[in-house]
Amino acid sequence: MLNRLFALNWVTLHGLVVMLGLAVYAITSHTLKQRRHPSAAIAWVIALVLMPYMALPLYLIFGSRKIVVAPRRSVIAFSQPGPVPDTRNPVFESAQLAAALGLPAAASFEQLTIHQDGGQALQSLRSMISSATKTLDVCTFLFGRDMLGDEITTLLTQRSRQGVRIRLLIDGIGFYIGGHPNLKRLTSAGVQVALFVSPLRSPLRGRTNLRNHRKLVIVDGTWMWTGGRNLAAEYFEGDPSSLRKKRAWIDLSFDLRGALTQQADQRFEQDWIFATKGVTVKRPNPAVPIFTAGANSARLIASGPDQADDTIYTLLVSACFTAHSRILAVTPYFVPDATLLMALTLAARRGIAVDLLLPRKSNHRLADIARHAALRELAAAGARIWLAPSMIHAKAVLIDDDMALVGSANLDERSLFLNYELMVAFYEPSVVQSFARWIALQQNSAASYRPRPPGLAREFVEGLVRWVAFQL
């Protein structure tokens, strides 16, 4: 009798815990507008039903994808006196969508330098650090404990002792991936260092799974350096003297000056406040300008939990549907969701030249396994896929001659739905062509991808890995 009573009470308690977990999931998802990938939603629901005592604490720690609530949006009209703008122009369409997403207005820039290799990128970084007179703000996903990290540490400590106010923002997980760099040298010299959502020390419940993947260096609020490179040896010239014999990867970064830098400065300030105080700064809605496609105009595009919409993802999908002649992309990891993959395959099937450049073998084995189903579908639609012989870490998507989207975001679900990312959309055709030439240079040594039908075991493994693709 006692055993039956105990069993009944346990079942009742278990049911109440399950109901509590599902209620928490439903309420937080609705209130915070947590639009999850279907596989993620199914996984959380199943876990909360079968393992509520473990799943509920994990959900409270890792479950949040957005930290802002999507506002109601009104239709934005682009009007100006004089001739009516060509609304079929991809530049106009991109500007209209960006404004509707609440992104800052396109801003002017000058003195753009696309770094041709790691050596030029490092020289630019050195020049920027040495030329700072007042402030130097640095944001990176990881800071290597290697030859490059040591050099940057030395430069930063020297400039800090010379009176430059320096702030260094490192992601909380990237800090450990980079080898747990010694930050005492920096802080003892007066450099302000902050970890963005440290998993061991962060008070930000539900946000431990969110990563700041942005790369940004700003000098005196007037000169910015950004792209895909982290501050570690493999992203520049390698480190053959290290135990791991780090070889240099192919990566893409650039620096520029102008009004666009001021927007990047504001973005860093918001990230810094969030990392140090746990407060999300609500910025006013930017004024909607009359967009005219002119020389030297670009748009800073931030994406992540601090944005109500998945901005980079939305712009990518829209651009695939509006492209007229070509889509040229380079990324180290290609694990798109069903919608982005459909947009790319449909573009290829309607005659758009779709070219995708990937490394033959990246540094993430699971991402390499997960990508093959999407690559086979793209190839069947007529897209051309190129595999570079060495690790390529560059991130860029070019649409026709009208837009080059370049920065830190990979074409995978973690970058597009979970990470804090930063891209720059360039609209000047000559600039777009400059990035196209850089990608073409990398394609020269790449081999064409030849899809092969997978066996039963391979197909099972690919499907299993894709089930958690949003975490890769």
Give a nutshell description of this structure:
The protein has 472 residues and is an alpha/beta fold.
Commentary on this structure:
The protein has 472 residues and is α/β, with parallel strands linked by helices. It folds into 3 domains: 2-62; 90-104 and 300-471, Endonuclease, Chain A, CATH 3.30.870.10; 109-269, Endonuclease, Chain A, CATH 3.30.870.10. Helices cover 41% and strands 18% of the residues. It has helices at 2-31, 38-50, 52-62, 90-100, 118-131, 147-161, 174-177, 184-188, 259-277, 311-322, 338-349, 365-370, 372-380, 413-417, 429-443, 456-467; strands spanning 107-108, 110-114, 135-140, 165-171, 192-196, 216-219, 223-227, 253-257, 297-303, 326-330, 334-335, 353-359, 384-388, 396-399, 403-407, 411-412, 421-426, 447-448. The strands form 3 sheets. Strands 1-9-17-15-14-10-12-13-18 form a 9-stranded mixed β-sheet, sandwiched between helices. Strands 2-8-7-6-3-4-5 form a 7-stranded mixed β-sheet, with helices on both faces. A two-stranded parallel sheet has the order 11-16. Strand 14 and strand 15 (403-407) form a beta hairpin. Helix 1 (2-31) packs parallel to helix 3. The radius of gyration is 23 Å and the shape is globular.
DSSP strand content: 15-25%
The counted number of beta strands is 18
Give the mean pLDDT.
Answer: 83
CATH architectural group of the largest domain: 2-Layer Sandwich
Distance between the termini: 50 Å
**Order of the strands making up the biggest sheet:** 1-9-17-15-14-10-12-13-18
Could you state the oligomeric state of the chains shown?
Answer: single chain
Helix tally equals: 16
What is the CATH C level class of the largest domain, in words? Answer: Alpha Beta
Considering the protein shown, what is the CATH homologous superfamily of the largest domain? Endonuclease Chain A
Residue share in helix: 40-55%
Number of domains: 3
Rg for CA atoms:
23 Å
* Main beta sheet strand tally, sense and closure: 9 strands, mixed
CATH topology of the largest domain: Endonuclease, Chain A
The low-confidence runs, each spanning 5 or more residues with pLDDT under 50, are 72-87, 284-295
